[in-house]
Amino acid sequence: MRCKTECFFYFFFVLLFVVCSCSNKANTTDYVKNLRGQKVWFEESVTDTLKESKILILMPDTGDCTTCAMQVYDWYIYKLDLDKHELNCDIIYVLNDSVRLDKSIANLMKRYKLNYIANLSSFYSENKILKDVPFTTFLIDKANKIKLVGSPIDNDKLWKLYKQALQK
Predict the structure, then answer these.
(1) Average pLDDT of the segment spanning 97-113
(2) Cα–Cα distance measured from residue 107 to residue 115, given in angstroms and rounded to the nearest whole number
(3) In which band, very low, low, confident or very high, does the pLDDT at 19 lie, cut at 50, 70 and 90?
(4) How far is CA 145 from CA 36, 37, 92, 112, 140, in A?
(5) Which residues contact 162 (CB under 8 A, 6 or more apart)?
(6) pTM for the predicted model, two decimal places
(7) Residue 34: per-residue pLDDT
(8) Closest Cα to residue 147, out of 26, 27, 35, 30?
(9) Which of 91, 73, 76 is nearest to 162 (CA)?
(10) Which pLDDT value is given to residue 32?
(11) In terms of C-beta density within 10 A (0-12 exposed, 13-18 middle, 19 or more buried), how is residue 63 classed?
(12) According to the 3-state scheme, what is the secondary structure of the chain?
């Protein structure tokens, strides 16, 4: 009897996992479809200094290790790859208002040509559609419209899509 009960619970949890996984995948696809083509607002001071296309990284919280959470070294490698392929694109972080970057991190980002602004709350107030989505990384075209959604870090296929979109 105990074996039947354990098997039933095991079967139930596997079924529940499959159902939840499928519904999450559908929700994720819906999010991406709704986001693509949406216009993103930036302050004029930001758009005046940046190139035509942007990789936007929203950082609501950086935790204890700012460089780790922001994946500064990873994005530096990606920036080098963009430069190597002569793809005109900036990488910009939008940090939570409360984040104060350590001077050494700010200098590192400047040296790596990674940009940041620290006004996430005003960014969200102007871009309400981005506030509650499960994504924090976006490829933005020269018209400030979302082209791709999701972080290409550790995802070679998505990084290839980013570079293809930038070549057009």
Answers:
(1) 89
(2) 11
(3) very low
(4) 7, 5, 15, 25, 5
(5) 55, 139, 148, 152
(6) 0.78
(7) 81
(8) 35
(9) 91
(10) 72
(11) exposed
(12) CHHHHHHHHHHHHHHHHHHHHHHHHHHHHHHHHHHCCCECCCCHHHHHHCCCEEEEEEECCCCCCHHHHHCHHHHHHHHHHHHHCCCCEEEEEEECCCCCCCHHHHHHHHHCCEEEECCHHHHHHHCHHHCCCCCCEEEECCCCEEEEECCCCCCHHHHHHHHHHHHC
Contact assessment for residue 158 and residue 52, using Cβ atoms and an 8 Å cutoff: no
Top-confidence range, 41-55, 64-78, 115-129: 115-129
Query: Which residues touch 134 (CB under 8 Å, ≥6 apart)?
Result: 28, 31
Q: Which amino acid is at 35?
A: L
**Which two three-digit tokens encode residue 56?**
């936007």
Please say whether the beta carbons of 102 and 78 come within 8 A.
no
Distance between CA atoms of residues 101 and 98, nearest Å: 10
